[in-house]
Every structure is written in C-alpha cells, then in structure tokens.
C-alpha cells in the first residue's frame, strides 16, 4: 500500500492492501469516515470522498474527483479526472471529465455529452 503526502483518512475507514498491485492513495486525497477501499485501487491526487462510500477492488479513480456520501464505485472501473458523483448513486460504466453523475428519485439518470436525459420509471414508458 502506498499513501501520498497530505492525505487525510477518517475514522473507521478501511483500505485493503493490494493483492496483485499496490493500493495507491495519491497526494492530497481527503477520505471521510467509514469508507471501504478495495484491494488494488488507485485514488488520484486531490480527490475528496465523503462518508460511507464503497469502492470495489481494482477501481482506478482520477484526480480532482468528488464522491458524495454512500456513493458506490464498481470494481475494475476507470473514473476519469474531474468527475463528480453525488450522494447515493453507483458509478457509471464509463465516465467523462467534468460531468456530474446522480440518481433522481424513481428515475434513472443517463448522461449524453454535457446534457442529462432522464428516463421515465420502468413500467411508465411513453
């Protein structure tokens, strides 16, 4: 495991050691309380992660990203630089720099380019 300079790690945050490669927390990362970081994960410099976030193993998170409370990141995904994921949603299969990803109550959010299209709840398609 490698932890950079000026990293803050909150209470009860768990960082799994790498199984194949090192788990890496780069410089200036801020981790709130009760975060789970899986093995072989890389978190880019100056990323901020709020409490109760779960990051599955081998995720690769870019620099200057933010994650709201209880967001989930699936394993083996790449989140590019400057991505903001709001509280609660799971990460998209692909991400684009500068985009905000969030779930809306009862609806599935899908981002296309720089615009968001919201799909109607299942069973209520028009």
Characterise this structure.
Helices cover 0% and strands 32% of the residues. It is mainly β. The strands form four sheets. It has a six-stranded parallel beta sheet with strand order 2-5-8-11-14-15, with no helix packed on it. A five-stranded parallel beta sheet has the order 1-4-7-10-13, with no helix packed on it. A four-stranded parallel beta sheet has the order 3-6-9-12, with no helix packed on it. Strand 16 (108-112) and strand 17 (115-119) form a beta hairpin. The termini are far apart.
What's the helix and strand layout?
Layout: E1 2-3, E2 8-9, E3 14-15, E4 24-25, E5 30-31, E6 36-37, E7 42-43, E8 48-49, E9 54-55, E10 60-61, E11 66-67, E12 72-73, E13 78-79, E14 84-85, E15 100-101, E16 108-112, E17 115-119
Parallel strand pairs: 1-4, 2-5, 3-6, 4-7, 5-8, 6-9, 7-10, 8-11, 9-12, 10-13, 11-14, 14-15
Antiparallel strand pairs: 16-17
Mean pLDDT: 80
Structure annotation, total helices: 0
What form results from the Cα inertia axes?
A: globular
* Low-confidence segments: 105-122
Largest sheet: 6 strands, parallel
What proportion of the residues form beta strands (DSSP E)? 25-35%
Strand order of the largest sheet: 2-5-8-11-14-15
The helicity comes to under 10%
Q: What is the quaternary state of this protein?
A: single chain
Distance between the termini: 50 Å
Q: What structural class do you assign from the helix and strand content?
A: mainly beta
Overall strand count: 17
Order of helices and strands: EEEEEEEEEEEEEEEEE
| Cα-based radius of gyration, to the nearest Å | 15 Å
């Amino acid at each position: 495991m490698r932890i950079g300079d000026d990293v803050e790690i909150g209470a009860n945050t768990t960082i799994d050691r790498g199984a194949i490669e090192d788990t890496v927390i780069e410089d200036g990362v801020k981790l709130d309380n009760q975060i789970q970081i899986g093995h072989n994960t890389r978190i880019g410099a100056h990323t901020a992660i709020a409490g109760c976030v779960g990051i599955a193993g081998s995720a690769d998170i870019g620099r200057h990203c933010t994650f709201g409370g209880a967001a989930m990141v699936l394993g083996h995904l790449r989140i590019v630089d400057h991505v903001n994921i709001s509280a609660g949603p799971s990460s998209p299969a692909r991400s684009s720099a500068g985009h905000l990803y969030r779930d809306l109550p009862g609806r599935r959010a899908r981002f296309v380019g720089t615009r968001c299209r919201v799909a109607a709840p299942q069973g209520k398609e028009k």
